[in-house]
Amino acid sequence: MKLFTSVHDVPSIKQFVKDALALKANPYAHQDLGKNKTLGLVFMNPSLRTRLSTQKAALNLGMNVMVMNLDKEGWALETQDGVVMNGSTVEHIREAAAVMGQYCDILGLRSFPKLQNREEDYSEDFFNKFVKYCAVPVVSLESATRHPLQSFADIITIHETWNPLRVGANDKPKVVLAWAPHVKALPQAVPNSFAEWMCKAQAEGMIDFTIAQPEGYELAEDFTLGAKIEYNLEEALTGADYIYVKNWSSYKEYGKVLTYPDGWMMNNDKLKFTNDAKVMHCLPVRRDLELSSEILDGPNSLVIHEAGNRLWSAQAVLKAMLEEL
Amino acid sequence: MKLFTSVHDVPSIKQFVKDALALKANPYAHQDLGKNKTLGLVFMNPSLRTRLSTQKAALNLGMNVMVMNLDKEGWALETQDGVVMNGSTVEHIREAAAVMGQYCDILGLRSFPKLQNREEDYSEDFFNKFVKYCAVPVVSLESATRHPLQSFADIITIHETWNPLRVGANDKPKVVLAWAPHVKALPQAVPNSFAEWMCKAQAEGMIDFTIAQPEGYELAEDFTLGAKIEYNLEEALTGADYIYVKNWSSYKEYGKVLTYPDGWMMNNDKLKFTNDAKVMHCLPVRRDLELSSEILDGPNSLVIHEAGNRLWSAQAVLKAMLEEL
Amino acid sequence: MKLFTSVHDVPSIKQFVKDALALKANPYAHQDLGKNKTLGLVFMNPSLRTRLSTQKAALNLGMNVMVMNLDKEGWALETQDGVVMNGSTVEHIREAAAVMGQYCDILGLRSFPKLQNREEDYSEDFFNKFVKYCAVPVVSLESATRHPLQSFADIITIHETWNPLRVGANDKPKVVLAWAPHVKALPQAVPNSFAEWMCKAQAEGMIDFTIAQPEGYELAEDFTLGAKIEYNLEEALTGADYIYVKNWSSYKEYGKVLTYPDGWMMNNDKLKFTNDAKVMHCLPVRRDLELSSEILDGPNSLVIHEAGNRLWSAQAVLKAMLEEL
Lengths: 325, 325, 325
Known about the structure:
The structure is a homotrimer.
Chain A: E1 3-4, H1 13-25, E2 38-43, H2 49-60, E3 64-69, H3 70-73, E4 77-78, E5 91-92, H4 93-103, E6 106-110, H5 118-123, H6 125-134, E7 138-140, H7 148-161, E8 174-179, H8 189-203, E9 208-212, H9 221-224, E10 228-230, H10 233-237, E11 242-246, H11 268-271, E12 278-280, H12 293-296, H13 303-308, H14 310-322
Parallel strand pairs in A: 1-7, 2-3, 2-6, 4-5, 6-7, 8-9, 8-11, 9-10, 11-12
Helix pairs in contact in A: 1-7, 1-14, 2-14, 4-6, 7-8, 7-14
């Protein structure tokens, strides 16, 4: 693997999930693979889970890790070509990325959208230029439009916890991505990416996938092709085995927080419609705004387990990259 | 050892000091113990000595280390339960701590008091919740009310430098904790912790312990039980073998800098009352405000030696935790 | 090697370049040398290339690395002696440096000039005090007046790319340091250091060295002794094999950005005067202000190759220090 920015970089989800669970069973079996290899983690935005899990994954594989918090360094990068750099940007991404590629065998990059200009964010201009100029394999640690290490951990978690022998079980797990309220305008990266992975998992026969959101919160079609779309949360939840709760800002009225009807916070009342569904969230979660404390502290929550699986999704990706270095 | 937050987690100071000095004599003898074990260091407040010494201690034991400066990341944690999280806190400590516990075998946490509300600070609510929710062993890197790695290094330093054969030596070293001036309101964590360790060391027959401070600067009794309390600095210093200089804000008028009589800065004039006492300070020290330059640059100062021992106190604690993982 | 702050710490440039290129050919051959040795990297100012390349160099040698971003920590250090520390500085450099020396076998320090007071900056007071009080070997990661790891990488790059068999080649490469415009007042550290290394390389018979700058931008003579000084850029460039482009603020009118004639930005038009010269820059570079994009993106640019060699200059220095620990 030379690049990991979306589900399109993964030939088979089923096989990749198997690889990750084999690593979970035997985390330190491949330490020779990473010997004298260096992972550089470049953050243009803050990170807790992604940073720690990816760092630990690399250490498990015997790699060295160097972290650069460019957001904290005031190291403003220029991305436009042909600009006379007499302003506030101190270095062009052409040089900055190329230089980091000189010292690292694999680079990870986190770069959030600005949520100002949809075309700019969805072009993934910054991310793509970084990939182009650094000249080494790149792992997305969340880009403007996707968070594939998170989505991979999500499908690992579903696969791992699904019990087909449960009384009254569906043939395949019914997975619902359910929009939830928030106070801030959040990117669509996590739901885009989750949808994209679930649509492919559905195509591979692993799950059934539904997205529920209020009017105006539809995601871009590129990411949701094949998903069942619902505007009525109760109908969407009926018979669900997994609910993936997440807020996002509007794609149509780009980056806006639109008004929405009451009743989109996930709580135990809504669980009644489900098949005793497990509840997931990528974290950080706003308690009692997106998701009720009673769920988060109860037996249906998978959120910590899911965060733990971030380690194995990162380790599977890094292992696949190391094997082709 | 599953938890290291105070002297109460230590069965015998004497034995623990011996363990630390054995590590100092042979720092790399236990590198297999830490193989594939990860220490996460979580800072809610800045750190220089604690961070470097604990990181080095872990490396000596063969561990990996991941550092999170949450104070720099603007990652404000919610600690109250039942709050609708529609404000400035981005994640609840229940999730944040649990997630960090997923990626680390041992966690270290630094969390200062706010010095606004004594009950809140002395409840150690933040620290205790972190311990509860992270579900892995925790080392205090200084909490609202204690700094046990510092105090452990202090008793190591006293034990290591005490010469009972010196002409005119006391049976046991006389140790004096002496309040000193400062321009800022500082926590009581270091003096609380030092007093607690010295009272236990006194109970184990290792030292005699006296605390000297101006009126109004008395520490909480829980920490000082068994200590001799003095308000006259010269009387306290008479016959002292070790002076531990430190400023703290008032516990009674909580967090306040009260007026105090002249003469509490430690200098060579005051050393005359002592038994040629060695002078200690946890650092950072305000020169010529808390402690005179003539002492710091002279033969009686132990402050750099003492800071060096931070490494061995951390290594002894981590070793004891690794042995029970 | 106990100290690396300038070319004066290097007995023979020729030999040191050979050592570095041997490491480049065989990066992991000396991993036992760094086992259980710790490098502390202390940054008073931001760093990208220096931090990553030095960290990677240490890892290649089997060392552990601990990074301290003191500029980000608000850890303001006092450097003056005899000051009552009742102001904003929280720790004296005497203690801070000594403590870091307790936990590290080798320290690296970056400390920029303030560009306010020439005498103060050129005394290297901060750097020298750090060296004095930390009591372990110190590598300069750029000081007020020099950037020797950069200059060492520069001469490695020239040596490595010079082809004496090229038709029409000079006996030795003609190297020109060429001032270029910028919007900010930059230190003289990089050009000082480059000049100092090139003058010594010239004395060792490796190159011919010329400096070109507008009136008022002359560097301090200590650094340029032996160099040919030109005020006419075209004349300086005539027959050049290497051009080292760099902005600096005035030394004479200290720290000032003076007016200068048009035509000092390096571009393809100016390359015509040269012997198809290779173009170098320490980076970060302001595109189309210091150096044209056409050069940076064309075949004459060595800037990324040169940045890559930062790794081997750092590794050669650390290896020389480890050998004498």
